[in-house]
Design brief:
The radius of gyration is 14 Å and the shape is globular. Strands 1, 2, 3, 4, 5 and 6 form a six-stranded antiparallel sheet that branches. It has a single domain, classed as Jelly Rolls, CATH 2.60.120. By secondary structure, the chain is mainly beta. A hairpin with an 8-residue loop joins β1 and β2.
Length: 98
């Protein structure tokens, strides 16, 4: 994957925004499962993206499709028929104030 940080200069962010190019053609090429705290939102700009989850069947997203999911669940991305370009937003959990 190639990642480009968007809105990097914004302070005290609760969300991280990325422009992503998914080039992996297989689960193995992707490097296996990824997981992290928070939520993840994907919006496909071009190409065809296959989203794999340890708990659900794979889903294919095409240009204009979007999805929001709990990023604590192991997940992986595959570019079907070539690279998939997307916007990714990761929700950052803030510790509760005491």
């Amino acid at each position: 994957m190639r990642l480009e940080i968007l809105c990097a200069e914004f302070k005290e962010k609760q969300n991280l925004f990325w422009k992503v190019s998914v080039t992996a053609k297989s689960f193995e090429e992707n490097g296996g499962w990824r997981q992290h705290p928070g939520q993840e939102f994907l919006y496909v700009l071009s190409g065809k993206l296959e989203l794999h989850s340890m708990y659900y069947d794979p889903i294919t997203l095409v240009e204009g499709d979007s999805i929001l999911f709990d990023a604590d669940q192991p997940h992986a991305y595959i570019g079907v028929d070539g690279p998939a370009e997307l916007i990714m937003m990761n929700g950052v959990s803030k510790p509760e104030e005491i």
